[in-house]
């Protein structure tokens, strides 16, 4: 709240070396602020989490497509990357959902606003779901590779909302389709294949280790299997199990 780089309006930068707003940042900052606010009983941190989401959404939301663009550069006042990255939209919707579920009942207006954001974002993303229940890396660009993690993120979002009775049954069936598609991508070691590969996130995480040439095996594993791609499988399964128990 005191040292992080931010925009002129106080919206936290996703980067330390430059002031940029990434769709990813909706998940990284606001949920932590909201959780701290609830834990410490500090309303100001909770409302700040909501303010941050609104600031990010104002910068990144594409009203025409109902999708989040990826990166806004505050210095140049232009998009660094306007593409509708699937995983970026997944980060955004999951982050808004986490904050929504932390808000106390007294903040009814804020809860309704965030739920509307999620519903609108879900409809935008689901419009680009493939027949195999996966997504292209850039949601509305079928020339980009097929990616697994966005489906996990959307399933997580839907299952969490379902657990609290905040979403229609139709969406739950779609989340179950995503989950089944992800399970088909899991190998015998429990690794979810096809997730966007770190650290550049511009290729599928299933390439052969030989493709790395002289680079070390350790680096190869890091490049091709992003930790968040694996972690979101766990995040997806947790609310799915909670939802099943509630039913």
Automatic annotation (TrEMBL):
GO terms for molecular function: hydrolase activity. Keywords: Hydrolase. One of its GO terms (biological process) is carbohydrate metabolic process. InterPro entries: 6-hairpin_glycosidase_sf, 6hp_glycosidase-like_sf, Glyco_hydro_88. Pfam families: Glyco_hydro_88. SUPFAM superfamilies: Six-hairpin glycosidases. This is Glucosyl hydrolase family protein.
